[in-house]
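Before the break, one more example. Copy the sequence into your notebook; we will annotate it together after we see the structure.
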Amino acid sequence: MVRSLHREFVHAGSDVVLAFTYYGHREKMRLIGKEHLLEPMNKNALRMARQVADETGTLMAGNICNTNVFDPADPSSAEKVRNMFKEQIEWAVEEGADYIVAERFDNLAEAKLALECIKQYGKGLPAVVTMIVLRDPVTIDGVPVAEALKQLAAAGADVVGFNCGRGPATMLPLLAAAKGEIQVPLAAIPVPYRTNDEHPNFMSFKTETGRNAYPLELEPHLCTRFDIAEFGSKARQLGVQYLGVCCGNSPHYLRALAEAVGRRPAASKYSPDMSKHYAFGTDDTLSKTYLEASQKF
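Here is what the structure looks like once it is written out:
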């Protein structure tokens, strides 16, 4: 199943197979009682990603992420997190990753620690480091997010940017504000949800009865493929060079994103052709009776 998903996203236009190790760190595995599976799970995920990357001529990226236990005021937590990053990075190197993604950090200090560990244990592999932006464009350790990206770039990250949390509408202004300050490629990987000024982060959505919509009742807030395509076009106009879609992604979103920036992946063969639709098409051979009837829908 995992290999099939990797292949499907490459078919839709991805240049990278990202190893499925997000939240595959020691703390999360401890929480669910699976710490004894930590190493084999990470290595199997990396091997599957490497296999599909080799089959398809794409890159393979290792992955580390937020730990939810980092506390800059507690040196012992930093050491614990360092060890967690170290083992995952070393496994990624061992299994042939082309670069390392360090993602979804809301704390600049933890993001810097992740970057430091990639530099120390990654055997020279490039580092992509991305931040999540919550309701306010400030990290939880009090740094404006554009400044956070600037500091990560200065510390040696090869690509910096934003992922997760914000949908296209509320990520684009952040990209526009950050672009002039960043001297390395900028990454933009939004969630495919229609976030807005009231709910700038998809974790803030509520249901009609007031429950948290995140993470199990988000379907009413989903983007269309056209929303994602529009985001891709606007991000490219801003000069964003590293694009993707985060939590909630699907191959049709990725295909739309790829097509919006001038690509034609293999899956484009199956992109919808509405010109042949019986009621909304433009083909001259369609029945005018049904085309006219569509005005009554």
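The CA atoms of residues 153 and 160 lie 7 Å apart. The mean pLDDT is 96. Try to locate both features in your own notes.
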